[in-house]
Amino acid sequence: MNHPSDQSGQPADSSLAVHPALGGGQTDWHALVAQYGSPLLVLDCDIIRRQYRKLAQALPEVSLYYAIKALPNKGVIATLEEEGCGFDIATNGEIAMLEQLFIEPRRTIHTHPIKRDIDIRTALRYGCTTFVVDNIDELDKFVPYRHRAALLVRVSFPNPSARVDLSRKFGCAADEIPALLAAADARGIHVKGLSFHVGSQVADASMHAHAIHRCRDLITATRPDAVAPLSVLDIGGGFPVNYDGSVEDMDAFCGPIRDALNELPASVRVLAEPGRYIAAPAMTCITSVVGRAQRGARMWYYLDDGVYNSFSGQIYDHTRYPLIALDAQGEERPSVLAGPTCDSVDVIAEDIMLGEMAIGDLILAPMMGAYTAATATTFNSLPRARILTLAAPASLAIEDSNVVRLA
Questions:
Q1: The domain boundary residue, chosen from 225, 257, 278
Q2: Do 31 and 91 have their domain in common?
Q3: Which of 128, 254, 285, 342 is catalytic?
Q4: From the CB of residue 336, how many other CB atoms can be counted at a distance below 10 Å?
Q5: How confident is the model over 257-278, as pLDDT tens digits?
Q6: What span, in angstroms and rounded, lies between the C-alpha atoms of 169 and 352?
Q7: What digits encode the pLDDT tens for the residues 61-109?
Q8: Which site in 6, 177, 304, 377 is 20 to 30 Å from 386, CA atoms measured?
Q9: How far apart, in whole angstroms, are the C-alpha atoms of residue 202 and residue 303?
Q10: 72, 99: one domain
Q11: Which one, of 111, 193, 207, lies nearest residue 158 by Cα?
Q12: Could you report the per-residue pLDDT of 97-119, keeping only the tens digit for each?
């Protein structure tokens, strides 16, 4: 019997995706599918804990606020609450999830730069008082709430090397900051700091360091003698994960960030918004072969999960996930893995070298915690993948019918 193979055609270690609670070995995955069906997403909350602790150790002077949008899951949130993490919220739906888990609002920041009045009121009613703006119209929305809210102004730092550059849609230019601060003062609105986000899955920390240095200059140059000087810097997210083995250790990655932060005034409190780094390694997708066809020189395998569901990050995030064919047999040849919908765009991988697979065989995809379940759709009226939770906090009452506690 051949070893399981990954998308490079080399033997793959299936233990990459195996949690100790499952006992190890590929038969465990088959047992899960036999019991719960397919596709499945297996979430390991112990990995959430590990990732949080690694980043907290790499940035010991930074307060971490998990970006809920990456994986809005109660098991993840409850786990991070136990670790002492804060939460970065952007929508009323995310606030509702925190309320259900009795998360204290003092541990939250609201970072969406564009909000409706109902969004502001909902967050204030919950108890969140820190918000982000990046333009004068957004500033004006806070005039009725100026005695209840404090703001961070988001600065734009274009970063073409990021997997997803967020500067085009959000953030003001650095030279606009003095005018925005003056406008806030004229309206009696408290701006307590600056924020930025250098983009998602960045290659290195050089842009983080550049943005921190630029914000340091803005903080020291604008309001040096003010009654309420700028005292907060939110350095956003962008902390990368190792989808393909090309990302350096997080402690080494954060070295330039630590050096830059050491140059900030001692009075400045620093925040960060990790999402992908915490969530991505914690979930593995299990998908089954439901059909196959020989088309020219390539074998097509049709799976019960695809880019409209758990693999949506391939479209929205340009992410390619590790793929492990558990049951492939014989000589490897160019193959295609396609999703279950009627759309021909629904293709997960092309021209990957795989041994022959039969209907019912399994594909594992580790590293699928971030922007997968969160961005999945129900196109073609196909259900989203069920989430199975490992090592969830004992205090968590999981009520969602699509969530099963395994350990």
A1: 278
A2: no
A3: 342
A4: 18
A5: 999 999 999 999 999 999 999 9
A6: 35
A7: 999 999 999 999 999 999 999 999 999 999 999 999 999 999 999 999 9
A8: 6
A9: 31
A10: yes
A11: 207
A12: 999 999 999 999 999 999 999 99
